[in-house]
Write a structure and sequence with these properties.
280 residues; alpha/beta; Rossmann fold; Pantoate--beta-alanine Ligase, Chain: A,domain 2; six-stranded parallel β-sheet; 20% strand; binds adenosine monophosphate
Length: 280
């Protein structure tokens, strides 16, 4: 695997691949890699793409300084994992390399970025869009792979790609879960073994909500009960549980006669904030 820390050298290297008409698959990450990340890389490799992974903990998308500081960083292990699965290129720039000047650009995605994560993390999606746009310009991939786990992020990146005419195909890869259902996440590394078990309640709440909705119940009817269920343990705090149109993210109250919905949850286990969702 070739490892690059500078934009210039990476671009020069990839230019040769492009001249040889080798299609490039790109998987942007913030590192602390787990099987979920690896499934995105596998999806790229399965399509026979020359696969580039980036690891960059993007300061612009953290609205909370301690969250940025505490974000897990496991570079040596990540490199080993990527070598083992046969990733072609790792791009692992410093913050100074990506932000050579303080960015002045702000993105807004009306309707998409003021709900759910956007409501609780002001500026988060502007920071995500900024770094993804930068990375797309640097790597110029033919295909880019994102996790369904961050469904709202995927929706916003799709808008970014459409509006800015990025010449690439986007792929959403299903969420990888632990055997018990817990969605894999780099943030799980910050959980004690005890809290990792408690974190399972997010997925359980989603499944319980789904069952109730399939039985004809409305979100308004079931929300109080689900919140009580989830917050039964004092270490759990739910921020939102929202049923929404999968594409517009408009919230809806019932699944009656509606297709293409997503049920999203976010909250804290102790100090650690987690998100999850299921498509309905
Ligand atoms: P992150 O490093 O958390 O920014 O995630 C990098 C990419 O991996 C994003 O597109 C995420 O949606 C995706 N991802 C994170 N967790 C999972 C998971 N459990 N299964 C599949 N993809 C994931």
């Amino acid at each position: 695997m070739d490892i690059f820390r500078e934009i210039k050298t990476l671009k020069a290297f990839l230019r040769k691949k492009k001249l040889a008409q080798i299609p490039i698959g790109f998987v942007p990450t913030m590192g602390a890699l787990h099987a979920g990340h690896l499934s995105l890389l596998a999806a790229s490799q399965k399509q026979g793409l020359f696969t580039v992974c980036s690891i960059f903990v993007n300061p612009a998308q953290f609205n909370n300084a301690s969250d940025l500081l505490n974000y897990p960083r496991t570079e040596n292990r990540d490199v080993e994992l990527l070598e083992k699965i046969g990733c072609d290129v790792l791009f692992i720039p410093s913050a100074e390399e990506i932000y050579q000047q303080k960015p002045g650009l702000n993105f807004s995605f009306p309707g998409l970025d003021n709900v759910m994560e956007g409501a609780f993390r002001p500026g988060h999606f502007s920071g995500v869009a900024l770094v993804v746009a930068k990375l797309f310009h640097i790597v110029e991939p033919d295909h880019a792979f994102f996790g369904q786990k961050d469904w709202q992020q995927f929706t916003i990146i799709r808008q970014l790609v459409d509006d800015l005419n990025f010449n690439l195909t986007l792929h959403a890869v299903p969420t990888m879960r632990e055997e018990n259902g817990l969605a894999m996440s780099s943030r799980n590394e910050r959980l004690s073994p005890e809290n990792k078990i408690k974190a399972l309640v997010f997925f359980q709440t989603l499944k319980l909500a789904e069952a109730e909705l399939l039985n004809g119940k409305t979100m308004v009817e079931i929300l109080p009960k689900l919140k009580t269920f989830a917050e039964n343990d004092q270490d759990i705090k739910i921020e939102y549980l929202t049923l929404a149109n999968r594409y517009t993210l408009e919230s809806v109250n019932t699944i009656k006669e509606k297709n293409h919905l997503v049920l999203c949850i976010a909250g804290f286990v102790g100090e650690v904030r987690l998100i999850d969702n299921i498509l309905i």
